[in-house]
Amino acid sequence: MKHSVCVLGGGSFGTVLANIMANNDHQVSQWMRNEQQVEEINLTGLNSRYLPNAPLHQELLATSNLEQAIRESDTVFVSIPSKSFEQVVQRIEPLLTEDKILISTTKGFNPNRFELMSDILRRNPATQKIGVLSGPNLAKEIAVGQITGSVIASPDEEVRLRVIELLKSPTFRIYENTDSTGVELAGALKNIYAIVCGLAKAMKVGENTMSMIITRSLAEMSRFAVHFGANPMTFLGLAGVGDLIATCTSPLSRNYRVGFLIGSGKTLEQAIEEIGEVAEGVNTLRMVVTEAEKHGLYMPLAEGLSKLLFEKAKLESLIGSMMTGGQKWDVEFATKEENKHG
Ligand SMILES: NC(=O)c1ccc[n+]([C@@H]2O[C@H](COP(=O)([O-])OP(=O)(O)OC[C@H]3O[C@@H](n4cnc5c(N)ncnc54)[C@H](O)[C@@H]3O)[C@@H](O)[C@H]2O)c1
Ligand SMILES: O=P(O)(O)OC[C@H](O)CO
């Protein structure tokens, strides 16, 4: 069945998703605020600022008419950075009807209060058909047809099946999960650890060290997420360990690059300016460290990074924070009995 889809956001991820769905013969409009970008995509089939090497499907329609784009669509993907997500969702709320499906692809927290993007979507009074798309999805790799897997998370089967129908392709495979909280938290939290790994890479640490950081990052992020209702098993999937590996090891990740640039002597402000695209991990770090303190959650890597970025602590103290401290179990979600005998 041919669907009408709207993607909100003119950045790299919104553009690759819109392009996949247009290639799948769905009617796709991509809403963006920048008129010049709209014109460029419609006239040349290129989004040169965000995806310069990816020619786009000729039927993909870029638009700055938000009202028309929403009214004409049965499914809306929101690919707006977390900083502006709530503001854009408030604009579309009056246009929503109970049959519309809403998908967040944004990996971050609301900077104004501790909540996820799907919480913002759920506040609309019209539709509760809501899902979260997350996984190891570096947009620039997807754009050139690298084999990629992602996860659609929603308790609602219709939502999951719709997203699979819209996005599946010979190079893009979508898996299902009902643990929306786990998938969404995994996607947001891993950005913190991508910054840590970028820093570690700039310090030229060995592979033992890098593996330890990535694995302890997984322990830390799943500890946080389980406290807020996630299933720890979700962290074994693509949205958990999968995305953590991709983002913690790839120079294509903006968060990793923030860490690498700081580790190479730049300030946080210089790193953000040089990248020129959203790096969600910085805001996520602020929100998560505050919540971890409030709830007594042990997160030495996040706390160490926060001290380094916001309180000018020394780089070495970040990794030092992982080497001391009380937490002694390798796998925390094994039962107490297993830990005793394992
Ligand atoms: N790029 C990736 O590889 C990737 C992959 C998976 C998920 N994501 C997530 O997707 C989200 C979007 O990322 P991206 O990579 O597309 O970002 P980006 O930096 O490439 O682009 C952001 C886009 O949002 C637009 N925007 C910002 N504020 C706006 C506002 N108030 N109104 C309208 N438009 C606004 C910008 O103009 C820009 O077009 C992020 O949360 C990111 O974590 C990104
Ligand atoms: O470029 P980043 O660091 O925002 O990462 C992009 C995606 O989240 C990778 O899955």
TrEMBL record:
- InterPro entries given for it? 6-PGluconate_DH-like_C_sf, 6PGD_dom2, G3P_DH_NAD-dep, G3P_DH_NAD-dep_C, G3P_DH_NAD-dep_N, NAD(P)-bd_dom_sf
Give me the residues that bind NADPH, please: 12-13, 33, 50, 107, 139, 254, 278, 280
Q: Where in the cell is it found?
A: Cytoplasm
Which residues are in the Glycerol-3-phosphate dehydrogenase NAD-dependent N-terminal domain?
5-158
Q: Which residues bind substrate?
A: 107, 254-255
UniProtKB keywords:
Cytoplasm, Lipid biosynthesis, Lipid metabolism, NAD, NADP, Nucleotide-binding, Oxidoreductase, Phospholipid biosynthesis, Phospholipid metabolism
- Tell me what this protein is called: Glycerol-3-phosphate dehydrogenase [NAD(P)+]
Q: Which organism is it from?
A: Marinomonas transparens
